[in-house]
Design brief:
CATH topology: Spore Coat Polysaccharide Biosynthesis Protein SpsA, Chain A
Strand content: 15-25%
Number of domains: 1
Oligomer: single chain
CATH superfamily: Spore Coat Polysaccharide Biosynthesis Protein SpsA, Chain A
Largest sheet: 7 strands, mixed
CATH architecture: Alpha-Beta Complex
Order of helices and strands: EHEHEHEHEHEHHEH
Shape: globular
Number of helices: 8
Helix content: 25-40%
């Protein structure tokens, strides 16, 4: 099978060298697309000489969802891998996850950063993730462990058929809502995850949480 990996980034100059080092180790048949979402910290300069990587540039900071949608438009291969460029999820895990995807013979593989046995941390992001996950499961009658996880492998034609509209972080719940509502079978799998702090560059904010909640409600009501 063939794969295009989409990596949206914004102001990641500090971690970008490590990211580039890791993607260079991937199979040469994997198309790497990095979407620079209007970075202002010198990220674009570091990307300017990357001959083996397809770099897409947003002139203005337009959001994670907008960047992923641009990446989908540019992807050429049969399957698409979605992953953030902040190194919270280990890119070196991709070969293992591709193998899981192919072994399960499904159109969608969804990552989960934790499961019901994971140790819960009383941090604002952990609490927010748990509440959103609980609300999504309640509304869609599902048992997902991590609806906000950034990692997915999806058949490209199926992903395009979902007609994703989100511009921000709410793209995760829109994508999962549409996968659930399509009634397609998918596999959820644990991934290695190392959370970073706001000081280290984490960008999701409380205001994004309200957009995420509204998106969950909107696509449930729209379907009904």
């Amino acid at each position: 099978m063939s794969y295009s990996i989409l990596i949206p980034i914004y102001n990641e100059k500090r971690t970008l060298p490590t990211l580039l080092q890791k993607v260079r180790k991937l199979n040469k048949n994997i198309e790497v697309i990095i979407i620079d979402d209007g970075s202002t910290d010198g990220t674009h300069k570091l990307l300017s000489n990357q001959k083996s990587i397809h770099v897409v540039t947003n002139e203005l900071n337009s959001g994670k969802g907008f960047s992923i949608r641009k990446g989908i438009e540019n992807a050429k291969n049969k399957n698409i891998i979605l992953i953030d460029g902040d190194l919270e999820v280990d890119i070196e895990e991709i070969p293992r996850l591709i193998q899981k995807f192919e072994n399960n013979n499904k159109k969608v593989l969804v990552g989960t950063r934790w499961n019901k046995d994971s140790n819960f941390k009383f941090e604002i992001n952990s609490i927010g993730n748990s509440l959103i996950n609980f609300f999504f499961n309640l509304l869609y009658k599902t048992k997902l462990n991590d609806v906000l996880c950034c990692f997915k492998i999806v058949n490209a034609d199926f992903l395009r058929s979902l007609n994703i509209q989100s511009n921000g972080f709410e793209i995760e719940v829109e994508t999962m809502a549409k996968i659930i509502l399509s009634k397609i079978s998918f596999k959820e799998i644990n991934i290695n995850y190392k959370r970073r702090t706001v000081r280290q560059g984490k960008k999701i904010r409380l205001s994004d949480g309200w957009k995420i909640l509204w998106t969950i409600i909107f696509y449930k009501l729209k379907r009904n």
